[in-house]
Design brief:
The chain has 168 residues and is of the alpha+beta class. It has five helices and seven strands, in the order E-H-H-E-E-H-E-H-E-H-E-E. The chain has one domain: 3-Layer(aba) Sandwich (Aminopeptidase), CATH 3.40.630.30. The strands form two sheets. Strands 1-2-3-4 form a four-stranded antiparallel sheet, sandwiched between helices. It has a three-stranded antiparallel sheet with strand order 5-7-6, sandwiched between helices. Strand 2 and strand 3 form a beta hairpin. It starts with a strand and ends with a strand.
């Protein structure tokens, strides 16, 4: 396995559209900011602009939305928030990640998080806050395997408490 986190590309259209459908089918989401109303090239340009803080939705911060690529197949994604606003400081954290259902259980989430932490450190962000739903034990294990230290559990959205971890 050679997982690489990289920027979204024009060639990713079919994989991303499949990933969006797969995660929605199980009640999740690929990205809070996926825009099916845009042409694919416009969406890719929009996502690239977010890294520099251009055209950010609502109260979002500058972020790098990256795809996790294994041998040319998009298996997951990572959102690296380059700063924290009040919501992210409490519930969202610096990193959001997801793995497509058929690629789970192969260590991809652990590697996505490991590389995400390295990328943020390279940008001067440390320590890194990572959160997960209190009942998401798989994500908690991934965070802990990457050195996450549980700070606390706080009330979350829709009555689902959030675990807040710091990775130094």
């Amino acid at each position: 396995m050679s997982l690489v986190l990289r920027r979204l590309a024009i060639a990713d259209e079919a994989d991303i559209k499949a990933a969006v459908a797969e995660l929605e089918a199980e009640g999740g989401h690929w990205s809070y900011r996926y825009r099916p109303d845009l042409t694919w090239p416009d969406y890719v340009a929009l996502v690239h602009g977010w890294e520099d803080g251009h055209d950010l939705p609502g109260d979002f911060v500058a972020n790098a939305d990256l795809v996790a690529d294994v041998d040319g197949v998009v298996v997951g994604r990572a959102s690296l928030r380059l700063e924290l606003n009040d919501f992210l400081r409490t519930l969202g954290g610096h990193i959001g990640y997801a793995v497509r259902p058929q690629f789970r259980g192969r260590g991809h989430a652990k590697e996505i998080l490991r590389q995400s932490v390295e990328l943020l450190r390279a940008r001067g962000v440390s320590p890194v806050l990572v959160t997960c739903d209190d009942d998401n034990l798989a994500s908690a294990r991934v965070i802990e395997a990457n050195g996450g230290v549980l700070e606390n559990i706080v009330p979350g959205v829709a009555d689902i408490p959030k675990r807040r971890y710091w990775i130094s």
